[in-house]
Amino acid sequence: MALVDEYRRQYAWRDWDRASSQCPIALGQHVLDLGCGPGDISAALFGRGASVTGVDGNHELISAAKERYPQCAFEEQDLRDLNPSLGMFDGLWCSFTAAYIADFEAVFSRWAALLKSNAWVCIVDVDDLLGHEPLSDETRSTIDEFYEDALRERRYDFKAGRKIPGVLENAGFSVTTLVLEDRELSFNGPADPEVEQAWKARFSRMGGLKAFLKEDFIPFTDDFMRCISSSDHKSLCKVICCIGTKISKGSGYGSFDWDSTTQRIAKSPAVQNSLDFAGAAVGAASPARAPDLVAAVVHAAEICSASTPDVTGREDRFAGP
Ligand SMILES: C[S@@+](CC[C@H](N)C(=O)[O-])C[C@H]1O[C@@H](n2cnc3c(N)ncnc32)[C@H](O)[C@@H]1O
């Protein structure tokens, strides 16, 4: 089966509805789908009212996406070095792709530069792909060694899922994490025959695993297939979905330290003068002028906060890189 068809078959086994229903997608938004593969998710995001640009480095997959979904724009680019001419976006979707990018945190900070203020991101990825029970202790320790080899050689991060919340938080996003059900990657009980076929096809594509195991490849995959077909099969593997919203000026300040900041503002000469002025004016003016005076004090506090170096620093950090 061609890779396009493999990806389309897998599409039916993912819990896309739960992931996308948690994203603040809105009519008219411009959304970037990074690692879009054959474009099925780009088309689903388009169906939610967004205009969508999908990007992938695989020529075969991008050609299939262009042919099948002309309502979306597709670009063939390396995700590690996106062209800034792509534009600015209200949302970023990236599913089952972050794990391919060894230095994901650095790459994500470059992606975030393509996002408008108040943009959202949704990153879905797998954690511990080969983590299933019951496997022998020997197979389990082979898996651990293979994970280390794949990370060292920068082919794939098998523990990407658990790292994504931290990556988003470090880039100034407020994060909600979901664990998604998945009929192929994270399920209990014996695999459906079609799911078994998909796993065999995945192993035949895993050149890194073949090279690592050499003559042990066949016994390893036999043991794995036995495991996922057994009635007491359990997945340790998880599909992690992280939805991040960008924290920007005026939209709430996350861990911003309001107490110490307001104390500093209150002590500043500008605010003291405003308060003195307000106090004097309230004494002299009618109660009808009180809202104007409150607005004057708030305005003075804003001016003061913008010119207080530490406060400005905190706001810049939350505005994203
Ligand atoms: C497992 S597929 C995921 C496809 C789709 N997002 C989904 O969730 O079904 C991973 C995709 O990432 C793409 N990809 C991985 N690394 C890439 C890179 N450095 N540049 C461009 N595309 C990349 C692959 O070509 C592939 O289409």
Structural class of the secondary structure composition? alpha/beta
Mean pLDDT over the residues: 85
- The tally of helices reads 14
Bound molecules: S-adenosylmethionine
What coarse outline follows from CA principal-axis ratios? globular
Going across the biggest sheet, name each strand in turn: 3-2-1-4-5-9-7
Class of the largest domain, according to the CATH hierarchy? Alpha Beta
Largest sheet entry: 7 strands, mixed
Which assembly state applies to the chains in this document?
single chain
For the record, give the distance between the C-alpha atoms at the N and C termini, rounded to a whole number.
Answer: 42 Å
- Our estimate of the beta-strand percent is 15-25%
- What is the string of helix and strand elements? HHEHEHEEHEEHHEHHHEEHHHH
The name CATH uses for the topology of the largest domain is Rossmann fold
Tell me the CATH superfamily of the largest domain.
Answer: Vaccinia Virus protein VP39
Helix content: 40-55%
Total beta-strand segments: 9
Tell me what the CATH architecture of the largest domain is. Answer: 3-Layer(aba) Sandwich
